[in-house]
Specification:
Layout: E1 2-8, H1 14-23, E2 29-35, H2 41-54, E3 57-60, H3 67-77, E4 82-86, E5 90-92, H4 97-102, E6 111-113, E7 116-117, H5 128-138, H6 142-147, E8 157-161, H7 162-171, H8 180-189, E9 194-196, E10 201-203, H9 209-228, H10 238-248, H11 252-270, H12 277-294
Parallel strand pairs: 1-2, 1-4, 2-3, 6-9, 7-10
Antiparallel strand pairs: 4-8, 5-10, 6-8
Helix pairs in contact: 1-2, 3-7, 9-12, 10-12, 11-12
Amino acid sequence: MLSILIPTYNYNCTSLLKELYSQITNSNVEVIVCDDASSNLEIISKNEAHCVKYSFRYLKNNINLGREQTRQKLAQNAANNWLLFMDADVYPSSNEFVNIYLNQLNQQIDVIFGGIGYQRSKSKLKQNLRYNFGIKREEKSLKERLNKPYISINSGCFCIKKNVFLKINKEMSQGIYGLDIAFTYLLKINKIRILHIENKVYHEDLEENMTFFNKSLMAIDTICHLERTQKLPIDYSRIQITFQIIKKSKLDGVVYFFLKLLHTLLKNKALSKKPNLFAFDLYRLYYYIKLKSNA
């Protein structure tokens, strides 16, 4: 019926495993964890011990393969036709989380997405950028997700038919950061049937500000790479659409000139004690135009 698949790397996911164990009452639900060659032996030991305790399956990669290939391995080892992928650093918002997914499984849909959220608490100052970005940009109501069913999917937690996942994931580039956008685009062009529901998980392990800032630029590198290799159109994501509007207005040179003058200020505002997300957007736009001009 359902295989819950968790790729992990140097992250203690024992609280997630404990919660899943408490929710699983159906014998046709399995949990498989795959460690992607973690270096932290203490974390490896804890995760493996909890898998043994709960009769979950535990797999190990001998070398670091990355999330996409680790997910592929998990899918290939899954016994069931429906796969629920969960990142190690998410946590169910409901004690009926597993049952809600089980009640939605049918032959008329291919992917189920319940949403992602961030718990309202005092975030650490060094994580403010990630926290605010998550709340303002990644948390989406069911109505918002229904308006943009594909690009609204966050791969931190989603349910998908095994045959669909193996086909889509095989088509993706490997070994680069920020492939969520490619995944959602492949779902769209393959006309995969999406069901959005209310069953969110909380994203718990937030990157520090500078780490997230740099990762966001790596994600833009990936967008440009996907464009060059014709695996993504030039007007799919928000930043791409914004650039196309500017370009059609023949203002790309002017916009780039002013953003270049202001880019240090924009970066400082994005990384300040009260992160300015508009400044963060403008910096990423500057970086994207810069990459496009150097292509």
